[in-house]
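Severity: low
Component: inverse-folding endpoint
Summary: output formatting inconsistent between runs
Steps to reproduce: submit the following structure tokens with default settings.
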């Protein structure tokens, strides 16, 4: 009889339906708990993906760009390269910078080494090291003007409108007027100072291109390489040391999200299992009746496992829908601005707006965690119920 009942789908469906109807409140509790947990996991995964995107966005727009090239200038004609790069369809903005090393002095006893970067202020105020952090004055626009980092200004004890001298060699001394001071946090080097663009022979030049899509980096790099002189260096955004650090941070975040999902699965399994254990204790009579009509221990196990997995699957699917809708609505609203939490960090200095992004992991990981927790949660209660003997069950009638 057990074997015949085992293949009677209508019988099992009726038993399962009656069992769930008699425990509607407990079923609702399980489904609601799973729904909230899965929705939270979906949103968390999508949020972390948005954080990863924002870090890459910020570091590219801060100074490095998606494609960077540098070489030793041969003369003023080198500046023509930037015009060609800016004409590329996939280039959003491109900055060219010159650099040289020297010594700055102020008075007779104040001196400091300096990394002098020349740039175009109109470009750098939107893309580069000068887009933020100006504490006093303005940006340098003439060949005899300079902007100092705050730490360097403190070492030289200079203020806006003071005159400092640049020594590139022992014979060359250039007077420069301090027109602005920036916070060193926004510079790539505490010994960096900023002046107007120069392309004198022997000066190091650098082009940083910000693209509409980082996926076009290889194509732009290939075209740019053909324009550069022999000996020039070039790298894309994913080859830069800064990106390697961000990549490690992204991997750490992904590992942490998996750990969080595992912990949520354990908590869910514990909660579901506790509820099912209480349910089994209350259903001894029901199991006795099923045993008397020919249902064996394996049938009881399948019944309880089916109940648990049905509730788990229902809650997981509802949680997926709720989490996806939350991400979609938040994306339409323009994301979450966390300036008060992340605006002071360099990786979020350009923009602190997080736009959650759904990925396969964001959808599949919470669903898998919920289903695994439901399967594990049903094991012990089902095993306990299957060991209830017919005699023991009939005593409760």
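Observed output (run 2 of 3):
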């Amino acid at each position: 009889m057990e074997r015949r009942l085992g293949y009677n789908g209508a019988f099992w469906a009726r038993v399962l339906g009656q069992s769930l109807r008699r425990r509607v409140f407990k079923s609702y509790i399980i489904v609601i708990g799973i729904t909230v947990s899965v929705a939270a996991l979906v949103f968390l995964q999508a949020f972390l993906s948005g954080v990863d995107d924002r870090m890459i966005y910020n570091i590219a727009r801060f100074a490095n760009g998606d494609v960077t090239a540098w070489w030793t200038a041969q003369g003023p004609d080198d500046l023509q390269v930037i015009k060609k790069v800016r004409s590329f369809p996939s280039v959003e903005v491109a900055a060219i910078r010159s650099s040289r090393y020297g010594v700055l002095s102020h008075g007779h006893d104040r001196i400091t080494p300096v990394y002098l970067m020349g740039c175009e202020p109109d470009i750098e105020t939107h893309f580069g090291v000068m887009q933020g952090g100006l504490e006093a004055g303005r940006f340098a626009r003439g060949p005899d003007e300079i902007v100092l980092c705050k730490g360097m200004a403190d070492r030289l004890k200079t203020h806006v409108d003071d005159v400092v001298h640049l020594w590139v060699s022992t014979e060359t001394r250039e007077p420069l007027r301090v027109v602005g001071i920036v916070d060193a946090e926004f510079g790539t080097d505490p010994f960096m100072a900023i002046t107007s663009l120069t392309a004198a022979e022997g000066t190091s030049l650098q082009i940083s291109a910000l693209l509409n899509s980082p996926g076009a980096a290889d194509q732009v790099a290939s075209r740019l390489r053909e324009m550069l002189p022999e000996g020039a260096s070039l790298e894309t955004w994913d080859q830069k040391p800064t990106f390697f650090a961000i990549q490690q941070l992204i991997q750490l975040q992904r590992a942490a999200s998996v750990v969080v999902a595992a912990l949520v699965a354990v908590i869910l399994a514990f909660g579901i299992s506790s509820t099912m254990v209480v349910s089994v204790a209350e259903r001894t009579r029901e199991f006795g009746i099923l045993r008397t009509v020919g249902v064996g221990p394996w049938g009881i196990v399948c019944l309880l496992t089916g109940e648990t997995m049905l509730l788990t699957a229902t809650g997981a699917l509802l949680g997926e829908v709720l989490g996806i809708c939350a991400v979609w609505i938040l994306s339409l609203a323009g994301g979450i601005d966390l300036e008060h939490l992340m605006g002071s960090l360099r990786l979020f200095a350009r923009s602190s707006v997080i736009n959650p992004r759904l990925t396969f992991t964001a959808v599949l990981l919470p669903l898998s965690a919920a289903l695994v927790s439901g399967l594990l949660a049903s094991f012990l209660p089902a095993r306990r119920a299957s060991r209830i003997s017919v005699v023991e069950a009939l005593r409760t009638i």
